[in-house]
Amino acid sequence: MTPVKLYPPKPEKVYFFGTCLIDLFYPEAGLDGIRLLEREGIEVLFPEDQTCCGQPAYTSGYQHEARAVAAAQLDLFPEPWPIVVPSGSCGGMMRTHYPQLFAGTGEEAQASEVAGRVFELTEFLVHVCHLRLDDRGAPEKVAMHTSCSARREMGLAETGPALLAQLGEVELVEQARPAECCGFGGTFAVRHPEVSAAMVEDKTQAIEAAGAERFVTSDCGCLMNIGGRFAHQQKAVTGEHIASYLWRRSS
Amino acid sequence: MSARETILKRLRERADGPLTAPESDFAVVTGRDWSAEERLARFERLITSVHGEVVHVTRDDWTRALAKLLSDRGVNRLALGREHPVAAEARAALVDTEVELVDVDRDIETWQREQFDRVDAGLTSVGGAIAETGSLWLWPTPDEPRRLSLVPPVHIAVLEADAIEDTFFDVIESRGWAGGMPTNALLISGPSKTADIEQTLAYGVHGPRELIVLVRHAGAAAGDAGGTA
Amino acid sequence: MSVPTPGVQTYTPREFHRQAHDALGNPQIRANFRSAMDGLMAKRRDVFGDWDLEALRELGANIRLRALAKLPDLLEQLETNCQANGIRVHWAEDGEQACRIIRELCEAREAKAVIKGKSMVTEEMHLNAHLEAAGIEALESDLGEYLVQLNEQTPSHIIMPAIHLNTDEIAGIMHDKTGIERTRDVDTMTAAARSQLRERFMSADVGISGVNFAVAETGTLCLVENEGNGRMTTTVPPVHIAVTGIEKVVEQLRDVPPLYALLSRSATGQHVTTYFNMISAPRQSDEHDGPEEVHLVLVDNGRSNIYQDDELLDTLRCIRCGACMNHCPVYTRVGGHTYGTTYPGPIGSILMPHLMGLEETKDLPTASSLCGACGEVCPVKIPIPDLLVRLRQESVGEGRGNVPGAGAKRTRKEAAAWKGFQWLATHPAAWRGGTAVAGKLRALAPSRLGVWTDHRSAPKPAGTTLHALVKRHRAGKDADQDTGNTTGNTKGDNGS
Fold first, then answer.
1. Which chain B residues in 189-218 lie under 8 Å from chain C, judged by CB atoms?
2. Across the interface, do C452 and A200 touch by the CB < 8 Å criterion?
3. Is some CB atom of chain A closer than 8 A to the CB atom of C453?
4. Which CATH number characterizes residue C220's domain?
5. Cβ contact, residue pair C142, B183, below 8 Å
6. Domain limits of chain A?
7. Which residues of A touch C362 (CB under 8 A)?
8. Is residue C8 part of a domain?
9. In the listed set C274, C301, C328, which residue is the last one of a domain according to the structure?
10. CATH code, domain carrying B163
11. What is the value of ipTM here, to two decimals?
């Protein structure tokens, strides 16, 4: 568990680290995150040379490769602005594991300094921007799936639901076992596909049983997994990244 | 090199170097500061929640309550000590009743089968109790041996109401247990139980099916804590 | 190693995938574990309600760390104090040595029958099979262990060995193996086991138990249980042999209450177990019961190797509560037998590679989504997810090489793939080209990505990348006006 973080006042600028999954599969979610920040009067810097935080290699045990990839990101944030990441998983990697990954290397101090500036998007919107939302969407029942990394590694079980609670027409329903993993786990879904499938099946059943018409999540891995399961079964329940959902309903 | 020497050498010559031992702060397991009433109420609530039974009695009339309890339950043969005041008083009070008193100050080899098959209940004193968890603590003695609280299907324990302390940690500290442990020390919290068959609780799997605690209060009447003497 | 009995299903970590497949396809197993784990999680949550759980976990971790920091000294102190109390202490480098010591102790008493209290370390060394090969019958007395033994299985959980069986199945076992009338009544079955086992306690020549905490300061062995079989095992037979891993020692008696509070609450959601049995000496000359001989067997079996490494050391803090498996979404789905190891679930996946080597266990460290639930509930704050990652590193040969079988999982193909990933992710221009190209080729994305698409629609690259969207956004043109439905992935179509 991350210790209680002291939040800075709202800055003039932030860096945005889009993550590779968003870059490749859900770019609109990244852009919607940027728009939400810009609407709060923050200038968003998007370092063009960003690629991936290195987590896929890291959790697969390829730490040398992970460290090389992570090292390539460290120089992208030279000014002392906060680094906003629209993913608990990548955010957790950068905040928690970068210092471990570079411990005892020449980049240790830089990695810790960067890690200290990393915020997950919903965390930043709630605790730094003190975001206020005006709901313009139609009434809807929505379930939130907070990713395990956001919940446990970054201690952010509450920020997503807190933002959704501001949407007056949205009824937030809670699925059974909300804290249980959806079964994505990065390469876990590939290495142990049957176990992963059993987990995501239970997750989709729980979301459906809660009466949700839609689920939102702050992590694209979970979105791909849960949404892919719903789509495979041709269910009506759809998924969306929370950044897009908030932007769409409030703009 | 012996296994002992090999293991210790490997531990001493640790590859990543010696470790630093942290200091410990035990505040979380002590300092409850409960009043006597709170202690008693908590003890009773906890031990009854795990199927223990509590009967409030006074020091003057407790043997009458014991006799009634034995007769209500159809206890014909009661095993008990001889020297401890609890045992001595019980013996004196029960000598003229139907209940047969079974001596336990005999080497177990001479009466093992009898203890397993033909004792209906065991009576013991206890050292005290723990409010936080609803536990009794016992130090078995030659007068009240280890198995007296284990083998008979009913265990009747006599607890002084003022011998309840807040936590297990408090008992160990206040009584200086580290200065000298008995051959066997026990915490007992309810009757024997299992949930090994599909999480269904069943009592009396190996040890006693029933644990009855006679809480002895000073004075002529039972204490105010809901006594039923 | 025990020889598999014909007709008895055996499990091995090498077959994790096949065993997981079988378990996932068995609705009874799925239902049994789901309901049991749901119940245990709820009970644990309730029982810590009025505690400062974080402070207690911090203290628990700190006590275990202190014990490990002083481990060699504490083991010697434990030995000295036990021997002063009349408990004889034996040391074993591995399971085989421990088995031999125990067998010889039994033979010295001409023992024919041994009764056992629950002990995972004796499971670890396959003691029962060893004793039986020497003509000594070893009978488990914990009800769950008894049922599992009757059913010729191994435990599927370290605290609740028979958790994989439901009442009907147990009714069948009790009827078939012990001859009682078939009943689903739990009290009746429990009473039957009670009378069957009481005979065996009386006739046993030796009782063998585990140890939960061994207190160096006083030479005291602490045993935690609910049933009373542990007290029977350690009190009724003339000889008691306690077996423990060397890491179970604690420094002081005052270290015990916090660990006991954490253990009972984390394991089964109980404020306290029925019995806490503290044994410091065999029967004295003036006593009338208790074992004449008490032995303590200290077993290393790989632990001193784990001890060498600063990070892996945390594994040895474990107090064997099983909370990590109760909260593990993988364990809940596949059950304990699937792991094919003495300790299943998250703790097994970080411990068994040290005991069996990574060649045998290479699928275990990956059998986790790294969701973190195990680390979150661990009463002594073992960073289990970090240790899983460390073992993944060791298994592909990128760790420190401190685990037996390090590198066993490395394949040239996978290593090359990660090198390729590294190259791409450290060459931003190529990355942008690559992701953009992937986006353009979305129509060509395979409709089947093997196993993923058996259960989910295939993810397809979006028609553009965030890099490209940001560029257009900066140019004042909003992406949704500009790219139309090509960014539809975020508009609720589930990425299909």
1. 189-200, 202, 204-208
2. no
3. yes
4. 3.40.50.10420
5. no
6. 13-127, 133-250
7. none
8. no
9. C301
10. 3.40.50.10420
11. 0.96
CA C63 to chain centre: 21
pLDDT at residue B126 tops 60:
yes
Model confidence, pTM: 0.95
Q: List the domain range (segments joined by +) for residue C449.
A: 425-490
Quick one: pLDDT at residue C410?
95
Interface list for C 286-325 with B (CB within 8 A): 286-290, 298, 300, 304-305, 307-310, 313
Give the number of domains in chain B: 1
In a domain, B197, yes or no: no
Determine whether the interchain pair A30/C470 forms a contact, defined as Cβ–Cβ distance below 8 Å. Answer: yes
- Domain boundary (C301, C318, C351) is at C301
Is C297 in the same domain as C446? Answer: no
Q: Is residue C372 part of a domain?
A: no
Q: How much of chain C exceeds pLDDT 70, in percent?
A: 92
**Cα C243 to Cα C100: distance, rounded to the nearest angstrom:** 13
Contact (Cβ atoms closer than 8 angstroms) between residue A50 and residue A34: no
Strand partners, B137: B128, B187
Find the closest chain A residue to C20 by CA distance.
A195
pLDDT for A6 equals 85
CA distances from B106 to A251, B103, C266 (A): 88, 7, 41
- Contact criterion met (CB < 8 Å) for C246 and B6: no
Phi, psi of B182 (to 5 degrees): -75, 170
Q: Nearest CA to A91 among A161, A13, A5, A31?
A: A5
Number of Cβ pairs < 8 A linking chain A and chain C:
240
What b/e readout covers C85-113, taking b as 16+ CB neighbours within 10 angstroms? bbbebbbbbebebbbebbbebbeeeebeb
The rounded mean pLDDT for chain C is 92
Token output for A50: 């960003």
Query: Residue C417: its chain A contacts at CB < 8 A?
Result: none
CATH number of A133-250: 3.40.50.11810
Q: Write out the residue range of the structural domain in which residue B157 sits.
A: 34-192+211-217
Q: How many degrees, rounded to 5, is the angle at CA C262 between CA C38 and CA C236?
A: 95
Answer whether residue C13 is part of any domain: no
- What SS3 class is residue A54? coil
Q: Which residue of A has its CA nearest to C425?
A: A51
B129 touches chain C (CB under 8 A): no
Q: How many domains does chain C fold into? A: 2
CA dist., res. B209 & res. B187, Å (int): 16
